[in-house]
């Protein structure tokens, strides 16, 4: 059988519908799919630990210069750079994420740390109050606030820290009822005479109590 241009075009015309069928089916499949979800990342992760419900909340993410000297301060900067490069990580930038934790213990709802506060929103942090709401709780549900340590990203969300039971507590523009606690060793250092005048205002309003021993 001899092929000429006319027979070739006839053959092509005959096979064209078969070749286009998968494309038509694909389009039909996409047309039948439901619309994309409008739900965005809610900024929390929840799991159970025994009888305790744990909700890890993303106060935000921020990019910094570093990691040296924030990390590896006792090492030579070049050594830190070498370690970062060996692990395929940038040597001059790092990403920090801030995760306060909400624990529903049945008798109390305990907030561990208060994040970066409203000032942090310029840098993408300070989202704690809205993320607590997104997780299904109200800020007023929190009965105990405890501070793990006194770095700014753990305490700046505490504007008026509780000084008595059932006092009002303003956390990132949201009202909070409860009792505030600071780990005793950390508090003893922060309020020692050697630190007088060095403690940030937000810290100076934290009452030093034994860790989670004061109940509402």
From TrEMBL:
**Would you say which domain of life the source belongs to?**
Bacteria
Is Hydrolase one of the keywords UniProt gives this record? yes
Q: Name one Pfam family in it.
A: Lactamase_B
Q: Which UniProt keywords apply?
A: Hydrolase
Molecular function (GO) terms for this protein are: hydrolase activity
Q: Which residues form the Metallo-beta-lactamase domain?
A: 99-168
This chain belongs to which protein, by name? MBL fold metallo-hydrolase
* Organism listed in the record: Rhizobium changzhiense
Lineage, opening ranks: Bacteria, Pseudomonadati, Pseudomonadota, Alphaproteobacteria, Hyphomicrobiales
